């Protein structure tokens, strides 16, 4: 079984090649535009390569030498002073270089597309024609899938485009909800509008009258006609009686 591919990161070559922000933009900008490296890795390289970490050793050694000179004892001889200053300076230089290596190591571990970054570094080296100098090399192994899939951001874009059909399907539902809300508003306005006095009386009268089956309608009509006939007969009889009384009084 073959070994996994790895990113070979030569610290000295990277430091010399990307010594300023302008060089980083000139060399890595086309790689970023071509999609070889992700936006995350490109921004990280812009902020890291021309950074302050490249001078940790010099700063610490200079600061240590100045501290030894200030805090030296008057009883020290010149030989002892230079011995202490040299020892502490070399120790500070080694500590600074270790911190610089750690910062490069953290940068390599932060890359989210090491396969694309390794290909970009290889192309830049071939274009520059500069051989990698001897020095510390950081190795980072990555899976073959990362090299095949390429940029992580492109996969995020592909995943984000999947829910679009669902959004299109939900649009008619939202329109239906909005139309139903208008219907509810109209219904509430119609219910809230004041009715006229005649409508109120009519409704009250209809509620007060008991509802009877429809089958009793012919019988009710027949009873009503009989009552009208009886009333009419009684009224005629009463008129005849009044006439008779009036005629008798006139005769007397």
TrEMBL record:
The chain crosses the membrane at residues 52-71. Keywords: Membrane, Transmembrane, Transmembrane helix. It comes from the Eukaryota. Residues 238-252 have a biased composition (Basic and acidic residues). Residues 157-252 are annotated as: Disordered. Residues 166-198 have a biased composition (Polar residues). This is Uncharacterized protein.
């Amino acid at each position: 079984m073959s070994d996994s591919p790895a990113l070979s990161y030569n610290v000295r070559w990277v430091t010399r090649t990307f010594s300023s922000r302008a060089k980083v933009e000139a060399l890595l900008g086309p790689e970023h535009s071509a999609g070889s490296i992700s936006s995350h890795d490109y921004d990280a390289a812009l902020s890291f390569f021309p950074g302050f970490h490249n001078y940790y050793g010099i700063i610490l050694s200079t600061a240590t030498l100045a501290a030894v000179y200030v805090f030296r004892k008057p009883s020290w001889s010149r030989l002892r002073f230079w011995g202490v200053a040299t020892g502490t300076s070399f120790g500070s230089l080694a500590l600074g270089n270790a911190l610089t290596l750690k910062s490069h190591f953290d940068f390599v571990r932060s890359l989210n597309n090491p396969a694309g970054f390794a290909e970009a570094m290889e192309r830049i080296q071939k274009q520059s024609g500069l051989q990698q100098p001897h020095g510390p090399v950081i190795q980072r192994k990555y899976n073959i899938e990362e090299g095949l899939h390429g940029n992580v951001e492109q996969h995020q874009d592909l995943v984000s485009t999947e829910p679009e059909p669902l959004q299109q399907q939900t649009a008619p539902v939202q329109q239906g909800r909005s139309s139903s809300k208008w219907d509810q508003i109209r219904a509430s306005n119609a219910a809230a509008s004041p009715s006229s006095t005649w409508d109120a009386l009519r409704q009250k009268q209809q509620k007060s009258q008991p509802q009877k089956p429809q089958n009793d309608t012919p019988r009710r009509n027949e009873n009503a006609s009989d009552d009208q006939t009886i009333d009419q007969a009684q009224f005629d009889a009463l008129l005849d009686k009044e006439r008779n009384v009036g005629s008798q009084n006139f005769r007397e």
